[in-house]
From TrEMBL:
InterPro entries: DUF6328
Segments traversing the membrane: 23-43, 55-76, 97-117, 123-144
Pfam families assigned to the protein according to its UniProt record, in alphabetical order: DUF6328 (PF19853)
Name the record gives this protein: DUF6328 family protein
Keywords assigned by UniProt, alphabetized: Membrane, Transmembrane, Transmembrane helix
Species annotation: Dactylosporangium vinaceum
Length: 149
């Protein structure tokens, strides 16, 4: 693979911009999911959910909160480190945070899908669909790109 004709600073700027584009997509998804989850306990039907469903909800909400924390944190880091000559660290840390955030995002999505399926059609369907989605996330988000490395 041919190297780009860029200085280290230009490479860090390009990497930062590419990371920001990725984060914009992930942040939108996690924010929509978080908003949905935050409204659930205020729904009239919430009073009839089981203890297991409540536990699933809490675990999913916590995963979504961690995903939100990690996927939005690079903005705060950038604001604090802006014009301090720390772009290399910023890119590395933000990339790691994005990776952790994406991990928790797919766990959140699987948890939300499981919860909805369990309430709507029952536990057996919920388990099957959640396992299928977990496998799909692992396959599409991690295995496929790793194989293409």
């Amino acid at each position: 693979m041919a190297d780009r004709d860029e200085t280290p600073d230009e490479r860090f700027d390009r990497n930062w911009n590419e990371l920001l584009q990725e984060l914009r997509v992930a942040q939108t998804g996690v924010q929509i999911l978080f908003a949905f989850l935050l409204t659930l306990p205020f729904n009239q039907r919430w009073t009839v959910v089981t203890d297991t469903q409540k536990a699933t909800y809490v675990a999913t909400l916590l995963c979504t909160a961690v995903a939100t924390l990690c996927l939005i944190a690079p903005v705060s880091h950038h604001r604090i480190l802006f014009r301090r000559g720390r772009k290399k660290e910023l890119v590395a840390t933000s990339s790691n945070l994005a990776g952790v955030g994406l991990w928790f995002l797919w766990l959140s999505i699987v948890g939300a899908v499981f919860l909805i399926f369990e309430v709507v059609v029952g536990t057996s369907w919920a388990i099957g669909v959640a396992v299928a989605f977990a496998a799909a996330f692992i396959g599409i988000w991690y295995i496929m790109p790793t194989m293409k490395r």
